[in-house]
Amino acid sequence: MESSLKNVLVVSFGFLLLFTAFGGLQNLQSSLYREEGLGVAALSTIYGAVLVSSMFLPSVLIKKLGCKWSIVISMCCYVAFSLGNFYASWYTLIPTSIMLGLGAAPLWSAHCTYLTIMGNTHAEEAGKIGKNVVNQYFGIFFLIFQSSGVWGNLISSLVFGQKPTQAAIPEENLLSCGASDCLMATASTNSTQSPSQELIYTLLGIYTGSGVLAVLLVATFLQPIKDVQEKSKGEEKSSSFWSTLLSTFKLLRDKRLCLLILLPVYSGFQQAFLSGDYTRSYVTCALGIQFVGYVMISFSATNALCSVLYGKISQYTGRIALYMLGTGIHVSCVIALLLWKPHPHQLAMFFVFSGLWGMADAVWQTQNNVWTL
């Protein structure tokens, strides 16, 4: 096996293990920790910390530690979040959410840098076009990575499904599901019936173990690349915190970058809706928390398959056509979800919507990462 492909697979399976844990936990936050909006607050804190971290941490860590160890250290932040869920409170979830958010930006930046360098290096050696090889590597990565949602969600549904926590849902409660759901409502709904603490601890133990395995896999088997560190040594000896921060904002002078910012911003919004609102207001409210994992498997499986497909066909269709496809699917889903009244008798629809959402999300995940080429 080629050395570059082996490293791509190591990164991919490391992310698979890590996000099997985080993806499953993220989808359950708003359903498990409803009191005073703790679950939603934790998710908001994570992505607020990602925003701050993105301004300066990725470049600093990658220059000092290289891509490999930036990935390893950032993964440890994700494991800390899993541990914080064992005793979920404002004093444990919020600090570990901040830690995870600070580690997320370096993790994704280091991973993108690593795959891009590997792809271009292999393209030079094989006499291929760099852009096409990098597209294929990102396609392989997201095929494996997005399947983490299948395993993480399957684990949560199997664990919570051991002891069904709910009876038939009264019709009057179903009226408050979907777009009619109010996060501040005090009326008893299906989402108020939580699984036992024993089942929650079992699930958290599995997720924490998966995260630890991810750290060990990458730390042991990933080959480090020196390109970034060597280039940074050839430039200035060391840059101060403020110069690094300033250089980030100086990039905003490029109009193209300002326009591109909207893509990851939207990608974050649509993922937040799926993991925070769709899982709580549609799935948990109408079906029960034990169905969250099964429904999200539809999203993850579709996302994984479409990721590798888009990576292959983008060289023929171009990116604009794929973005138009993703936009059309998402707009159609949003309009339909606003009008739809979820009901247990319409079980297939919960899977259809999550599957369509995964088809569109695969566009943002694969194409946003290669705009810099």
Short note summarizing the structure:
The protein is an all-alpha fold. It has helices spanning 3-32, 38-84, 90-126, 130-146, 148-160, 171-174, 197-221, 227-234, 241-250, 255-260, 262-286, 292-317, 319-339, 347-367.
Report what the structure shows.
With 373 residues, this protein is mainly α. Helix content is 78%, strand content 0%. It contains 14 helices and no strands. The chain has helices at residues 3-32, 38-84, 90-126, 130-146, 148-160, 171-174, 197-221, 227-234, 241-250, 255-260, 262-286, 292-317, 319-339, 347-367. Mean pLDDT is 83; it is low at 232-237. Keywords: Membrane, Transmembrane, Transmembrane helix. This is Protein unc-93 homolog A.
Helix content: over 70%
Low-confidence runs (pLDDT<50, min 5 residues)?
A: 232-237
Mean pLDDT over the residues:
83
- Rg over alpha carbons: 21 Å
Overview features:
78% helix; 373 residues; 0% strand; 14 helices; MFS_trans_sf; mainly alpha; Ion_channel_UNC-93; globular
What's the SSE blueprint?
Layout: H1 3-32, H2 38-84, H3 90-126, H4 130-146, H5 148-160, H6 171-174, H7 197-221, H8 227-234, H9 241-250, H10 255-260, H11 262-286, H12 292-317, H13 319-339, H14 347-367
Helix pairs in contact: 1-2, 1-3, 1-4, 1-5, 1-7, 1-11, 2-3, 2-7, 2-9, 3-4, 4-12, 4-14, 5-7, 5-12, 11-14, 12-13, 12-14, 13-14
